[in-house]
Amino acid sequence: MGYKSNFNGMAIFFPNNRFVDGRMDLQPSASLAMNDGTLVYNRQVDLPTGYGSFWDYRNRRLTVQVRVQPESVTVQGRFSDTDPWTLLINYQVTDPKFRIRPNGYIGITSLVAPVGGQIINLVDYVALDSLHVVNHDLSQKGEDAETAPEPSDVESRPDPIGEKAVDSSKDSLISSLKDLKLTAYRVIT
Questions:
Q1: How far is CA 36 from CA 88, 94, 168, in A?
Q2: Could you report the per-residue pLDDT of 134-171, keeping only the tens digit for each?
């Protein structure tokens, strides 16, 4: 499957090939898989999954829109801004252990070579032109506007050491420095 075959969470795959009877057929698709980290996926057997659709996107720029909610995942695609969105995946989460949890992460990988990284045949070039992420759940932390702390008014606080040092006598200055030393010692220890 590429980076991790026993992933934990949701994965959306865009494989170009479909393996039938040990033979590889060129058949681009988009499919979704859910895993709790216990299943190990094999790209020659498990892709495309039963959740998805076949769609020929090869050699074209494809815009993909993924909408993830706690109980559903929707994936749509289109080739240009003027094209209507085409529904590729509409998955309803029915098993509670696969519920989409908050504070997740997005991982993107492209597997275009067989095991060992040796390219035997020509493979497709895959490029990610841009990525835009929008959190539609404004109740989740992270969407709050950053706030600057209120400035503190240092001048209005009492300064006992400064008040003692106002008197220019040598004894007052020595007393102030001893107080400063003791205060610093208490803060450090």
A1: 23, 14, 74
A2: 777 666 665 555 666 677 666 666 666 566 555 567 77
